[in-house]
């Protein structure tokens, strides 16, 4: 597997405020990464540092194998970190032509990219006649003109209507399926869940979780249990090979699973050990609950 971007103990301070704190993660080729966190959690700052538009306070990042300068590496990166801005009176096609001229790339890919973002029929329309979704798609076409190794998007669906959001998400998935690595920042959990294979969860500039999205979702759940003899119950749970952690609160005992176990099988095991339950519920946290717990818990 080849590495596109390595971020190592990155910190950014604005005066007394630490916007990004000791952040480390790696972007591998071919995956779709989401940086997920509430507003103000440091997503844009992190992207800005990697793209050389924000100065880091400390730490490191390196593009690709680290042997090229950031300046040269960024020629293989397509990024949209601001609202798409083109010349309003110029057509979509002419705007992209100008981008090619400025970046010194040839114009051979313009039609192909307009086709990809579904703007080919509007190629001769002025930019100012475009909806926000179309503007965003034109920006994506523009960022792809030189076939970058990675496409970076900051809150790509902000401000769009539901159809516009759907279209951008489908487009991102299509670009990823063509082999382009993607890194997007979003405060929307469902966006990351739908579009990304990997996630870095940030809160107040600190990484709370990073890993595969499906592994974040696939927690095995937990049992809520009550028994007259809760001491015996807890002893049993603590020795149980499928149980990770046991928490007692009032007369309710919560047992977290580290592997799948059905409620009926579990109940049978308890019964056979002479433990009788007055309450048994199996629950699973949704990704949303896990995310809210991660980002809202001040002691996390
Ligand atoms: P996000 O993109 O996750 O919403 P940002 O990276 O934009 O978060 O911001 C992280 C924190 O840094 C916020 O508290 C924000 O107010 C602060 N911040 C961002 N840019 C600046 C700046 N240029 N000067 C001072 N503070 C800033
Ligand atoms: Mg932001």
TrEMBL record:
Keyword terms of this UniProt record: ATP-binding, Nucleotide-binding, Transport
Lineage: superkingdom: Bacteria
Domain ABC transporter residue range list: 5-229
Pfam families linked to this entry: ABC_tran (PF00005)
Transmembrane segments: none
Molecular-function annotations in GO: ATP binding; ATP hydrolysis activity
SUPFAM superfamilies linked to this entry: P-loop containing nucleoside triphosphate hydrolases
Family: Belongs to the ABC transporter superfamily.
Protein name per its UniProtKB record: ATP-binding cassette domain-containing protein
């Amino acid at each position: 597997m080849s590495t596109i971007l390595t971020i190592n103990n990155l910190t950014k301070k604005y005066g007394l405020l630490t916007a990004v704190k000791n952040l480390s993660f790696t972007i591998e080729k071919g995956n779709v990464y989401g940086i997920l966190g509430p507003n103000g959690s440091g997503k844009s700052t992190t992207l800005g540092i990697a793209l050389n538009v924000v100065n880091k306070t400390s730490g490191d990042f390196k593009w690709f194998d680290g042997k090229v300068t950031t300046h040269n590496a960024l020629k293989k990166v397509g990024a949209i970190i601001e609202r798409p801005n083109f010349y309003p009176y110029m057509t979509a096609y002419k705007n992209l032509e100008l981008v090619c001229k400025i970046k010194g790339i040839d114009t051979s890919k313009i039609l192909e990219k307009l086709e990809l973002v579904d703007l080919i029929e509007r190629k001769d329309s002025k930019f100012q006649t475009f909806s926000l979704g179309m503007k965003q798609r034109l920006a994506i076409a523009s960022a792809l003109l030189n076939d970058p190794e990675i496409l970076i998007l900051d809150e790509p669906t902000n401000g769009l209507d539901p159809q516009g959001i759907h279209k951008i998400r489908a487009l991102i998935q299509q670009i990823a399926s063509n082999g382009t690595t993607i890194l997007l920042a979003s405060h929307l959990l469902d966006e990351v869940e739908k579009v990304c294979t990997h996630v870095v969860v940030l809160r107040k500039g600190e990484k709370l979780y990073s890993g595969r999205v499906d592994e974040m979702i696939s927690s095995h759940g937990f049992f809520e249990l009550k028994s007259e003899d809760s001491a015996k119950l807890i002893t049993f749970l603590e020795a149980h090979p499928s149980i990770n952690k046991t928490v007692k609160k009032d007369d309710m005992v919560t047992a977290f699973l580290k592997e799948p176990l059905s409620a009926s099988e579990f109940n049978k095991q308890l019964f056979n050990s002479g433990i009788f339950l007055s309450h048994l519920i199996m629950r699973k946290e949704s990704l949303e609950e896990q995310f809210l717990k991660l980002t809202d818990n001040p002691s996390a």
